[in-house]
Specification:
Elements: H1 6-10, H2 18-32, H3 41-57, H4 60-69, H5 93-98, E1 119-125, H6 127-132, E2 134-145, E3 161-163, E4 172-177, E5 180-185, E6 194-196, E7 208-219, E8 228-231, E9 247-253, E10 259-262, E11 265-273, H7 274-279, E12 281-286, E13 292-297, E14 306-309, E15 325-332, H8 339-352, H9 361-374
Parallel strand pairs: 1-9, 11-15
Antiparallel strand pairs: 2-7, 3-6, 4-5, 8-9, 10-11, 12-13, 14-15
Helix pairs in contact: 2-3
Subunit structure: Homodimer.
Cofactor: Zn(2+)
Subcellular location: Cytoplasm
Length: 378
Amino acid sequence: MSKRDYYEILEISRTSSSEEIKKAYRKKAMQYHPDRNPGDQEAEAKFKEINEAYDVLKDEQKKAAYDRFGHDAFQNGGAGNGFGGGFGAGGFSDIFDMFGDMMGMNRGGNSRKRSGADIQIQTEIQLTEAFTGIKKKVKYKTKKPCQSCDGSGSTDKTNGNKTCPTCHGSGKIRAQQGFFLVERPCNTCHGTGQVISNPCKKCHGTGLENQDKELEIDIPAGIEDGTRIRISGEGEAGSNGNPPGDLYVYVSVLPHDLFHREGANIFCRIPIRITQAALGTELEVPIIDGGRSKVKIPAGTQTGKQFRLRGKGFSVLRSSSRGDMYIEVKVEIPQHLTKRQKELLEEFEAEAQNKENEGNPETTSFFKKVKDFFEGKS
C-alpha cells in the first residue's frame, strides 16, 4: 500500500509557510489525539500518520528532500545499498548537490585549496599606549615550509606521490547520515587525493616545520580592550604550496593606577581633605596625554561631585577627536588626629550644633524627618 502525500495528510499546499504547517498539524493532532478518541484504532493510525508528516515538513532539509524525491528520500531499500530506488542515475549524490559544496568539495572530486591554519595570540599594552597608538612586537609559534624537503613532504624533494588508497584519488569520502550522503575530505590524504610514498623524516610528510616568529604590528590610537586585529597571511604556511593562514592578535589593555576608561571618556577619582572641600581649593590634575589641568573646587563640595574637562578624554578610533575627562572628588576623613586637631574639631562640632548654624542643611533636614517620624508626624 502506497503512502499518502504528506501535504494531503495535513491538508496544506506545497507553498505553505512553516507557521501554516505548524498550525495545520496542531489542528489535526488535536482532532485525532488518542485521548480524545479512546479505543479508536483508525484515529490512532491517523494520529501517527499526522506526526510522521509533520516530522518531515517542519524540517527545512527533510522538506526539501521530500519535495524533490517524495517518500523515496527516506527509504533505505531500493537498489540494496540505501542510495538507489527512485533516485535516478545521480542517486543520493543529487541531494548533496542541493546544498552546494558543504564540505569544500566539488562534484569533480577535486578538493578546494586548503589554506594554512589561522593563529590566535594575545598581547598586552598600557592604557597610555592605547591612547597614543603603538607599534608592538609580538612573538608566536607558527609553521613554515620544511627546509629539508622544500615543502614537498618527500625525502627526494620530488613529486614522489601515489594515489591515496582510501579515497582512490578523489580526495573525499562519503558517509550516510540519516537520509543524506555527506561528503568530507579524506582523512588519509587530507583532501589532496595523494599520499607521499617516501615522506620526509624531518616533517613526516607534512611539508611544514615549526618556526618561532617575531612580527611588528600597528596598534591604532583609541583601541578598545579585547579588540581583535587581523594580519593577513601571517598564520601557518599552507601545505603543498597553498596560501598561508592569517594571524589574529587580541589586544588586552591593562588597568591604570590613575585613570579609568569608559568608551571615549576618562574618569579620575581625586581625594581631597575635609578642609579643602569645606573651604574650597584649586587642584592641578594629570591628563592622559601627559599634560596637566587646573580644576577649581568650590567651597562646600561633597563626595562624588564630578567636574568635566571637555576634550581631555580618550582618543576616538580612526578619528582626531577625543572624549571628555571627569574628575570625581572624594572627601577623605582624617585619621590619627593630633591633640590639637581633636580640640579644633570639637570646637567646630560645638559650633555646628548651634541652631542658627545652617552649614549642614542635609544633616539638619534628615534628623528633622527622623524626629517627625518618632513623634508620629510622618
